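Hi team,

As requested, here is the filled-out complex form for the zinc ion run. I kept the field names the same as last time so the parser does not choke. Let me know if anything looks off before we queue the next batch.

— J.
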Amino acid sequence: MKTEDTIWAVLESVTDPEIPVLSVTDMGIIREVHAGEEVEVVITPTYSGCPAMNTIEVNIRAALQDAGYERVRVRTVLSPAWTTDWLTEAGRRKLKEYGIAPPQDAVADKNALFGTPRVVPCPQCDSENTELMSQFGSTACKALYRCKDCLEPFDYFKCH
Ligand SMILES: [Zn+2]
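And here is what came back:
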């Protein structure tokens, strides 16, 4: 049966090329799904310049075609813009298990307005004794931090 629920189930298997543990549904980038003659998937990129988004679009189409949906259209909607609030709880947990610090909530972010450095807890040992090494980690979506307790460097997912 080809319903919107089964399309969502297929989308759960499509992962972020940069963070393979995170599915596109975990990321909260899927806005709408329409079943019909042609399947339409509406997505909002994590940020408009994100090079991974093209890959995600291709992967969504490929996964749905593998599942038997011949005509698939992926439409990109930029407004309202994606924020890290759209990341699901499961997504945050998977990020941390993968060793990437999940985005801090908006309340914590307010500290940045007052010039107080953001505290990003270490995903390995939960220590808050961490320091920013670089605004840009392995990709533009991540910043590189280092934990002063376990001495491990780690990525912080900062796209918003
Ligand atoms: Zn640590």
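Two things worth flagging: The chain is about 30% helix and 20% strand. The radius of gyration is 17 Å.

Thanks,
J.
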